[in-house]
Amino acid sequence: MNKVKLGVLVSGRGSNLQAIIDNIEKGSLSAEIAVVISDQADAFSLERARKHNIPAVHISAKGYKGKRDEYDGLLVEELRKRGVELVILAGFMRIITPTLIKAFPYRIMNIHPALLPSFPGLHVQKAAIEHGVRFSGCTVHFGDEGMDTGPIIIQAVVPVLDNDTEDTLSSRILAQEHKIFSRAIQLYAEGRLTIKGRRVVVTGSEDKGGQFLINP
Ligand code: GRF
């Protein structure tokens, strides 16, 4: 099978990036990472990439306040230069603009630590606990112009326990993020994702496609 060429955009610690690297190295993900790009010079993600001989690039957002489109133009340039086919937002803490979205239509994936469309935005594990939901989880979706609004590819459900803190819930959700992000990329690599309206249909599915139910 062809290896899908990934460009991974990051801002921080990069545990999702690491899970993707590990799955590629294990042979369970038919992909290769062409470049990791960070908007933060000191992101630990860049070190993770370098350790695995993956090109790691810092593109500073300094001087681009109010010019998000122009900044995204720099990203598009770098991603194209590296021959990237699928853009992975793995903890990239910037809102993306039409410049990036139009350059990679339905070829941008984001991971979000809640069951969208509930709890978009930031600090969502805390918000889920405070709201009193019994289940939260994580979502892999295509990037669009809204905040966490694009078509949903895969979700994993994680129970919220009575004694959960933001940290304990976040780490249980994160363990599922590490599984479903690679799974979504693999479905893309296998050509099994079709968009119908705002629904993503997983074709040729003997397994559960986009549905992951996780027991406590
Ligand atoms: C994850 O919780 C992800 O869902 C969110 O940002 C966090 C990134 O974590 N978008 P990491 O950098 O992959 O460890």
Q: Segments where pLDDT lies below 50 for 5+ residues?
A: none
> What compounds are bound to the protein?
5-O-phosphono-beta-D-ribofuranosylamine
Distance between the termini: 35 Å
Report the portion of residues in β strands.
Answer: 25-35%
Radius of gyration: 17 Å
What does this entry look like structurally?
- By secondary structure, this protein is of the alpha/beta class.
- 33% of the residues lie in helices and 25% in strands.
- The protein has six helices and ten strands; from the N terminus they run βαβαβαβαβαββαβββ.
- The strands form two sheets. It has an eight-stranded mixed beta sheet, covered by helices on one side. A two-stranded antiparallel ribbon has the order 8-9.
- The longest helix is centred in the C-terminal third of the chain and has 24 residues, at 166-189.
- It is globular and about 50 Å long.
- The termini are far apart.
- 5-O-phosphono-beta-D-ribofuranosylamine binds next to α1, β5 and α6.
